[in-house]
Structures are given as structure tokens and as C-alpha cells.
Amino acid sequence: MSIYDFSVTTITGEEKTLAEYKGKVMLIVNTASQCGLTPQYKGLQALYERYRDRGLVVLAFPCNQFAGQEPGTAEEIAAFCDRTYGVTFPVFAKIDVNGPHAHPLYQYLKANAPNGDGQDIEWNFAKFLVDRAGNVVKRFEPSVQPEELADEVERYLND
């Protein structure tokens, strides 16, 4: 199975597959609106604006599994992202990233990240970098700031 086969639901309830992002470098992040790391939305947006014309897409997957830090409805999450951080990258419906109800995409990401060893997501804002061919090439801990990813993103945009 390829990453492009996964079906996801947008924050507005539309079903799509990740095939829409074939040929792009994807940065996939589990997010939350009420977390100490929430200001990373600003850095994610800046990274997206800087590199989107070269083929980067940031994909945000809200998750309420960590201390209940994403309790809102889809509408509340979308409004928060827009109002607070001016997010223009795709935001998807709330999912689980760990446990028996983990979204299949996250099961795949954890199993295929070269430096993740299939480990559970530890907190909000864990990041996975996927190259243009759909390979999961890197997993970043939540504490890694989006600004720190510029060199890695550049590397895969240039491949």
C-alpha cells in the first residue's frame, strides 16, 4: 500500500485521498488548539508559504488524544486555525493517532518512518516528512520547531 492510497476527511467533511498530493513533499502533523506547542501553527504556515510554490504541502490532522487539548468541533478548529494563525494549508478532520482507533494513515506513518521504529506518537505536533515519491523519510519529535525543518524540506524539494 502506498501513502497515496489513504482516504482522509477534510475539516469540512469532504472525503479525498492523498493521491491529490502526488509529486509533492508532504509535512504531516498532528495538531491541537489548546497545547503549549500550538504556536507552531505560525511556523508551519510560514514554512508552507515559503515553499508551497516549490511543491511543499503541510497537512494538519487535529487530535484530542493528548490531555484533551483539541476538544473543539470541526467548525471551531477551522475557525481557530484561520482566525488565530491565518492557516491556509489543508486541515483535516479530527483523528486518533495512537491506539486501537488510530487512523490507518498514522499506522502507516509510524510503521514506515525510518527513525520512528513504529513507536506511538508522543504528543501534539509530531511531524512526518514524505518525499515526492511518497516515501516517509523522516519523523520529527513535537519539540522540533517548524523553522528547524527548512533544510530538510529544501533537501527533498531539490530531489
Automatic annotation (TrEMBL):
Family according to the record: Belongs to the glutathione peroxidase family.
Listed Gene3D superfamilies: Glutaredoxin (3.40.30.10)
Stretches assigned to the Thioredoxin domain: 1-158
Name this protein carries in UniProt: Glutathione peroxidase
Listed PROSITE patterns: GLUTATHIONE_PEROXID_1, GLUTATHIONE_PEROXID_2, GLUTATHIONE_PEROXID_3, THIOREDOXIN_2
Residues annotated as the enzyme's active site: C35
PANTHER family, alphabetized: GLUTATHIONE PEROXIDASE
A single GO molecular function term of this UniProt record: peroxidase activity
Pfam families: GSHPx
Keyword rRNA processing appears in the UniProt entry: no
InterPro entries: Glutathione_peroxidase, GPX_AS, GPX_CS, Thioredoxin-like_sf, Thioredoxin_domain
